[in-house]
Amino acid sequence: MADMNTSAVKKHYSLSELARSLSSQIEKTYSKSYWITAEISKLNYYPQSGHCYPQLVEKKSGKIVADLKGFILKSKYQHIRTKFLELTGKEPGDGMQILFLCTLGFHAVYGLSLNILDIEPSYTLGEMARMRTEAIKKLKAEGIFDQNKSLYLPLLVQNVAVISVETSKGFLDFKNVLASSPFPNSINLRLFPALLQGDAAVASIIAALTKIRQVDIDFDAVVIIRGGGGETGLDCYDSYNLARNVSLFPIPILTGIGHATNLTVVEQVAYKNLITPTDLARNLVQNFIDFATRLKNVKRSLTNFRKGWFTLTRNELDAKANQLELAVSEKLANRRNHIRRSANRINNGVENALVEAKASINYRMPMRLNGVVKNRFETCNRKLNAQPASLAHSTMSQLKESQTNLGFIADKLRILDPANTLKRGFSITTLNGKTVNNADELEPGAELETRLWKGTVKSTVK
């Protein structure tokens, strides 16, 4: 009982009295407004009331060393939001470093709070620039700033992984440009949906890149496209983590995020950057157009070369055939003359021998006449027999050589013969008797005749 009486006489205060005392002390001690720096841990904006209740923190070495609640009245938040958009291109949001003007207050129920009167966007803009500079410095220090730019990008990009929002204007513009190009089915797209702006965009885009990495062998390139949102919400593309993922990605990344002023870090490390999704699509299509033009020029050159070579070869073959004919005729004429001269010499020799034999018979060698005449006659006879055989052998060799050369020439002519070209599956299309080489020169209603190996086909251009 004594203990209870002792407790009853102890001086005490109610909780509300303590709260009022704290409030009074804070109002007296912190009667002015103060500029404070902090990070918005969570904005806590409520659209219905229009008020904002940001959770403000200070971090050192990644650890929170201070954590207080703030309050922004609807009218003041609208003013702050508008000013932020004009200067920084984005609204106040989670993770943003801010410099704000506030007064301190204490409420018996809600506790200590900071009544925010204004936020200085230039401070936040400076922080954003500092973070961008730090991200670039770290990427260069790691030696990966230009790594994605060093990858191989095919001249004709045919399979593309797209990081975008399916219903976004940028993605629709990108697809429309490809569909309306001269090569509408040349580029295959596969969408990997992701958020493209705001606080959650970094994690969302990295998640999409992770999915693409698992099947990167299926793609020539990745495109990150965003459009229709102006230049707000682009600070996520200055994120070191996102930029590092882009730098280290195994296939080229192309960007078209609708940003026309200072390049973000992601745009700087990407393989290629174009301002809008439309520009990006046109760039991909232009490569196909340029390649098709080069092919047409090569085809035209080959056609002209083939025609010229065929004409030149045919002229050369005609000239060689004429030369061969003249050479054979000249050779035969020379052989005939040689035979005639040889025959004359033999005849003269025989006549002389006969004269000598006759003289021998009449005056000197009556007994040896028969033997001499016989031997002389046999010698002359052998010469006469041997001369035509040698001439025939030489002539036949020349003729065989000429036939072989003519055979080679005939084989070349057969290879170049248009009929053999048709036989191999080709065709010749003519318009009014002239060969058609370019489909662009044909007009609707033109009557064409296509010659095949067997037969012809008539058709009309529509």
Automatic annotation (TrEMBL):
Q: Which keywords does UniProt give here?
A: Cytoplasm, Exonuclease, Hydrolase, Nuclease
Lyase as a keyword? no
Q: Which family does it belong to?
A: Belongs to the XseA family.
Q: Which Pfam families does this UniProt record tie to the protein? A: Exonuc_VII_L (PF02601), tRNA_anti_2 (PF13742)
Name of the protein in question: Exodeoxyribonuclease 7 large subunit
Catalytic activity, as annotated: Exonucleolytic cleavage in either 5'- to 3'- or 3'- to 5'-direction to yield nucleoside 5'-phosphates
Could you name the domain of life of the organism this protein comes from?
A: Bacteria
Domain Exonuclease VII large subunit C-terminal, residue spans:
144-459
Tell where it localizes. Cytoplasm
Q: OB-fold nucleic acid binding domain: from which residue to which, for each copy?
A: 13-120
The top of its lineage is:
Bacteria, Pseudomonadati, Bacteroidota, Flavobacteriia, Flavobacteriales
Per the record, the GO terms for biological process are: DNA catabolic process
What are the annotated GO cellular component locations? cytoplasm; exodeoxyribonuclease VII complex
Looking up InterPro entries in the UniProt record yields: Exonuc_VII_L, Exonuc_VII_lsu_C, OB-fold_nuc-bd_dom
Q: Which organism is it from?
A: Cryomorpha ignava
User: GO molecular function terms here?
Assistant: exodeoxyribonuclease VII activity; nucleic acid binding
Name the EC number(s): 3.1.11.6
Q: Does the keyword Transmembrane apply?
A: no
